[in-house]
Amino acid sequence: MLLLAAATARVDAAERADDVKAIIERVNDTWQKNHAPEHNAFWDNAAYHTGNMEAARLLGREDWTDYSTRWAEHNDWKGARSDNKAEWKYDRYGEGDDYVMFGDWQVCFQTYADLYRMLPDDRRLRRARQVMEYQMSTPQRDYWWWADGLYMVMPVMTKLYNLTGNQRYLDRLYEYLCVSDSIMLDPETGLYYRDAKYVYPAHTSVNGKKDFWARGDGWVLAGLAKVIADLPESWQHRDFFVDKYKKMASSVVDAQQPEGYWTRSMLDPEHAPGPETSGTAFFTYGLLWGINNGLLTEPRYLEAAEKGWKYLSKTALQKDGSVGYVQPIGEKAIPGQVVSEKSVTNFGTGAFLLAACERMRQLQAAEGGAGADRAFWTDLAERLAAPVLEPMSQGKLHERMTVEVSPTWDGRKKDVAYMEAFGRLMAGIAPWLSLPDDGTPESKTRSRLRRQARAAYANAVDPDSPDCLLWRGEGQALVDAAYVAQSFLRGYDSLWLALDTLTRSRYIERFKGLREIDPPYTNWLLFSATIEAFLAKAGAEADIYRINSAFRKTEEWYVGDGWYADGPEFAFDYYSSYVFHPMYLDALAALQDAGVRNRLDYKKYYDRALRRAQKAALVLERFISPEGTFPVFGRSIPYRTATLQPLAMMALIGALPEGLTPGQTRAALSAVTRRMFGPGTENFNSDGYLTIGFCGSQPNIADWYTNNGSLYMTSLSLLPLGLPATHPFWTDAAAPTTQEKAFSGRPFPKDHIWKNPAPTPDRY
CA-based angle 490:603:669, to the nearest 5? Predict the structure, then answer.
C-alpha cells in the first residue's frame, strides 16, 4: 500500500489543535442551533452534511451524527423521490423529483453511505444503490456535465464501491470523469470550466482571460481528495486521479491572492474582486488533505494552505460563529455581486468544516502525534523492537538475547528463537518503519530503528556474522523465513529495495534453499507460498506449483463466516488471525504486483479472501469487551495481540468493513493493547525481552514449540502504525466498541452470516 507522511506544519504560536477544535465546535453548534435538520436532500443541504459528518467523526460528537441521521430520515434516505425510472433526468439543472440522476440530488448519498458504515441497515443504502446501479446500467456516460457534479457524485462512487465491492463503480467513475474532461477540462492548467458554456475563448472574463469559477474548481479539488482517500492502492487508474489532483493543486496555488483567499474568477481578480469563502474553503481543504497525506510536499503548498486557513479563521469566521463571505447559489463569478460578512450559507459552512478538520489534523501531527493512543503504540513498538534490532544490527543478538523455551520444549535447536524474534517483529513494524521521515520525535525513533533493521537484515544472511540466522537444519526456518519475506512485502521500498545487492542476492538464495523443507498439511503451506510470492515480486524465479497448491488447500479449508481450518480438521483457535488471512492476502497481492498470470485469477482470489478477512475483523472487534479483554482459547495463545491481526490489517489497508469506523477500531485495539501492556503488567524480562505468557509471565500456557522469540508475533497488531499520524484512524475521536454499545443500551449493528462468494474457476 501507499504509505503517506504526516506533514510538519509551521505552527503559529497562537494556534493549537485544541484552538481549531474550539472553532469547529463553535461553528457547527451555531449552525445546528439555528437550523433544524428537516430540510430536503438537495445539494446545498447535502454539502453541509458532508462537512458535518467529517467534524462529527473527528470530534466524536454523536449529537452531530444524530443531526445528519434526522436529516436522512426526514428524506427517507432518498435524493430526488421519483420511483418511475422512465422519467428520471440528468441532462440539465433541475430541482424536481424527476431529476433522480442529476448529481445535485445524489450528493446526499455520501452522508447516507457514511451513516450506513457506522450502523449497517439496508434501508440506509437501498435507494443509493438503486439509483446509482440503474444509472451505471445505461449507455450514457455524460452524467457529470458541470464541475460541481464532480464533488457531488465522484465520492459516492468510491464509497459505494468500498461498501459493495462492485467493480462497476470504479469503472464508471473513470469513464464518467473522462467524458467530463472532454467537456470542461482545460489541459493547460488542469483546472475546470464550470461547464461547456464557459470554455475559453468562447467565454472570457472581463479582461479577456480564462474564467475559472473558484467554487466550481473548489468542488473538483475537494472531490478528488475525497476520491483518492477511498481508492484502492492497486487500482489501474489511481495514478490518473493522483496526477490530476496534483496538477490542479499547483494551478490553484498559483491563483491564490496575497490575503489568502481566492477571487471568484480565479485568474482575473478584477472580474469579481474581493474575498469569497466557499471556493477558498474547498481549496484549503483540498490542499491540507494533500499535505496531511503526503501528496503535496513542496513548501509552497503548506504556505498556501496556511494563508487560506488564516483567511477562513480570521476573516470569514464571524464573532457569532457564522461563516461569512460566501457567494450565494449560482454558477459563475458575477461582476458587481456583493458578498459580505453576512453572506452565510449551508454549503459554505460545510466547506469551512472540511477545511477546519484537516487543519486540526495537521496541527495534531505538528504538535507531536495524534494523541495518547499513538504515543502508547509507538512506545510499545520501540520497547519490542529495540532489544532485538539494536544488538542484531551489531551482530550481538545471539550474545545478548535471553532465550526462554516452553517447559514441554520438543528438543529442536534453540537457535530458532533468533529468527522467530526478528522475522515476526519485522512483519509487524515494517509498515511503521516505512513511513517517510518528517522531523517529529517519532520520526527520529523510526529512523534509528530503520537503520538498525537494515543492518540486522544484512547480518541475518551474512555467513561471517555472529547473527547469521538458522536457515537450514530445522523445519522451523520455513515458518520464520516467511515472516521475513512478509516484512519485505510490507516494506518493499524502504526495507527490501534499500538493501545492498549482495544482501538481496543472499536472501533470494536462502529463500530458494527452503524448498527442501516439505511443509506439513497445515497453515505451513502458506509459509511456503508467501516466500515464493515474494520471490515473484522481487523478480526471482518462483515455484508456482507451491503457490497454487497452497492456495487451493486454503480454499478447501475455509469453513465459513471468516474462519479457516488449520488443515483438514477444524480447530477453534486463532490461526485464521496468525497466518491464514494475512499471509493469503499478502501473497495474493504480491503476485498481482508481480504481474504473474496462470490458471488462478489472483485478483478474484484476493477479492474473495479480502471479504472473508473483513468478516474476521468484525468478529474480532465483537470479541473485545468493554474492559479491553477478548476470549482466550486455542493453542499459541502466548502470541498475545497477534490474535487481532486481521482487524489491524483491515485498518492499515483501508478495508474496514461496514459497522467498523476508524475511531472505533483504534479504540478497540488500544483498549486491548493497554490492558495487556499497560502499567503493572509484566510481559518483559529484566533484559527487555518478552516472556512466555499471555498477559504477564505464564510459562504453563506454552506449547511444545514455543520460545520467547515466537512471541514477537504480537507486533502484528501494531500494523496501523503504518498509517500517518494525520490519518483518521489516529485523529478521529475514539468511538465506542460494539460491546460497549450493546451493554449501554445504544444501537449497534446486527450480525449475520457472510456467505462464501462463489468459487472462482480456473482460467484454463
Answer: 45
Cβ density class 432-465: b for 16+ within 10 Å, e for less: bbbbbebebebbebbebbbebbbbbbbbbbbeeb
pTM exceeds 0.85, yes or no = yes
Residue 187 DSSP SS3? coil
- Assign 5 a pLDDT band (cuts: 50, 70, 90): very low
Find out whether 480 and 529 touch, Cβ atoms under 8 Å: no
390: left (phi over 0), alpha (psi -120 to 50) or beta: alpha
| Helix segments in 367-475, DSSP class H | 372-393, 397-400, 416-433, 441-461
**Residue pLDDT, tens place only, 85-128:** 999 999 999 999 999 999 999 999 999 999 999 999 999 999 99
- Taking a C-beta distance cutoff of 8 angstroms, is the pair 424, 357 a contact? no
Q: Which residues contact 88 (CB under 8 A, 6 or more apart)?
A: 82, 98, 99, 100, 101, 134
Beta bridge partners of 179: none
- Hey, is 563 helix, strand or coil? strand
- The b/e string for 279-316 (b: 16+ C-beta within 10 A; e otherwise) is bbbbbbbbbbbbbbbbbbeeeebbebbbbbbbbbbebb
Which tens digit of pLDDT belongs to each residue from 439-492? 889 999 999 999 999 999 999 999 999 999 999 999 999 999 999 999 999 999
- Residues annotated as catalytic are 148
Count CA atoms within 13 Å of residue 575 on its CB side: 22
Q: C-alpha grid cell for residue 412?
A: 529442536
The span from the CA of 370 to the CA of 725, in Å, is 5
